[in-house]
Amino acid sequence: MSLDLGWKELPVVQRRFLLYSAAAAAIFLLLLMRLWYLQVISYDDLQARSVRNRTRVLALDAPRGPIFDRQGELLVDNRPAFQISVMRQDVDDRSRLFEKLAPLLEVEISALELRWQAGKRFPKYRPVPLVEDVSREIVERVQEHGVDLPGVLTEVRPVRDYLDQGSAAHLIGYLGEVTETELHDDESNLYRIGDYIGKTAIEKNFEKYLQGSKGQRLVEVDVKGKLLRQLQVKPSQPGNKIYLTIDRELQRAANDAFGSQSGAAVALDVNNGDILAMVSRPTFNPAMFVSGIGGDQWRALVGDDRHPLQNKVIAGQYPPASTFKIVVALAALREGIIGTKRTVECKGDFVIGGSRYRCWKKKGHGHTDLTKALRESCDVWFYQVGLELGIDKLEAAAKEFGLGAPVGYPLPGERAGLMPSQEWKRRRYNEPWYAGETVIASIGQGFVLATPMQLAVMMAAVANNGQVLKPQVIKQIEDWDGNLLLQPEPEVVRTIDYAPRVWQAVRDGLVEVVNAPKGTGQAARLDDVVVAGKTGTSQVVRRKSDAEEELDEDGETLYRFRPHALFVAYAPAEKPEIAIAVVVEHGQSGGRAAGPIAREIIKRYMELKQQNRQEQE
């Protein structure tokens, strides 16, 4: 009997039983094979998935390195700040979540939506910050409603804390969120979307020393993404310590001395080029950028006519006015064009080629020699001497002192200023140089432009016998074990070869500027230290006649047309230690507006020096 016949002869129930048994055996075999596949073949992969579903690896931001002044006083540190974030993959209903969360955070739903959309760039399982630097009260409120807020996390991250707010903002700089371009240029792959990075000044240029190394936190979560417990922590490593050359107390004094005025001031150590104080006014608070600056705040900063974001010490270019007379006098003495007793008759104006050039003193200064010309800032004396010297020799002398070219400030943004010559004008305007332009250049007007930093370097060179020093902003950089990573050495750019009698003749005049009865810089005078200096008042626009001059409601010249006030100085005159340049924008008079600021800086410098001596004793 064939199998076919045997099968057909079986009862129907029995045949069905055998079919069902075979099907069940096949299904059981398939299940067994699937179970074997899952338990043996796919074990490692499924185990990893399971771990990923119940755990999260959260990055721990590294505290940036602190920044100190030259005395070890803390200028910039870090503080812990609460941040409310969300894990996108743990949120099923975004609209419902935001409706509950917005009132708790006291923000608009639209603001949360913007952050959510920005978070699409983030890697998977990376928390998306919704609000940053929130109060403890808000954190507690969010935690109380945690059950109804799936995927919401409370994190603590270090944020930059600028202890003196805007006192040295242009030197220290600020942070901002890393851009796509910066991520692309990051060959070491240290940054991710959402990280903050130095954008300007010290914070940017010394980023590699300040950034630190990120840590990690492994946490366990439930099915709604809520934190259950912390499993493992790899601590972050803070950035290195940077010591600047500035003195915190001197910086404060310089900042306070400006009051509400706009301008810039810089103080240098005449022996090594250390920047002891550097102020650019108006300033800004770098903390505004810590959590992302708002559109209105940013527009207010960039739209301010007084340019609070510009570091005017290195980027502000001003006619140096009568402070430039120092260079003219030195160059003329070296060239033998004048002697210390050479006099010029000042009757209040100077005529050449049919053009009349006025002295600031309408009645004139009478018979004027070098000392008197410096002391009382006689324009006519310098008109005559500058004309005899010639623009090309004047240009060469000015560039020796660092004018008309960058002086080597170690951070970006330095402007070159301008020192014209015959060749420069021919190249720039395709025109010849005129004698009248030499006359104007001799008092630091016309085409001549200089930055406050250049004027300070010039004054330091006058004080230290002709050493043109490269400005320094970094004293040293150390790691947390005290190992020295960087310590710039003083750098002499060049040494100007002038005879001792030349230096002394000009220095004597600068002392009289501040200390003699008719000196234009008496507002900078101190009782216990001899200050040497020079005033300057630079025109912003070509002066109009009295009838044409534009006035405000009070009958005063409109602010934007008022001349800038300048003062340069060094002290003590006998053995110089500190050189200063001050520019007060639209301050009208160098002696009255800029001189008192220099006086306060020098006064505070001497007080701090005395305090340090007493502490050491």
Provide a descriptive summary of the structure in words.
With 617 residues, the chain is of the alpha+beta class. Strands 2, 3, 4, 5, 10, 18 and 19 form a seven-stranded mixed beta sheet that branches. The protein folds into three domains: 3-41; 56-244, Penicillin-binding protein 2a (Domain 2), CATH 3.90.1310.10; 248-285 and 309-477 and 487-616, Beta-lactamase. A hairpin with a 6-residue loop joins strand 22 (564-571) and strand 23. It starts with a helix and ends with a helix. The chain has 22 helices and 23 strands.
CATH superfamily of the largest domain: DD-peptidase/beta-lactamase superfamily
Number of helices: 22
Radius of gyration: 36 Å
Distance between the termini: 124 Å
What global shape is seen? elongated
Which keywords apply here?
single chain; Penicillin-binding protein 2a (Domain 2); 22 helices; 617 residues; 37% helix; alpha+beta; Beta-lactamase; five-stranded antiparallel sheet; 3 domains
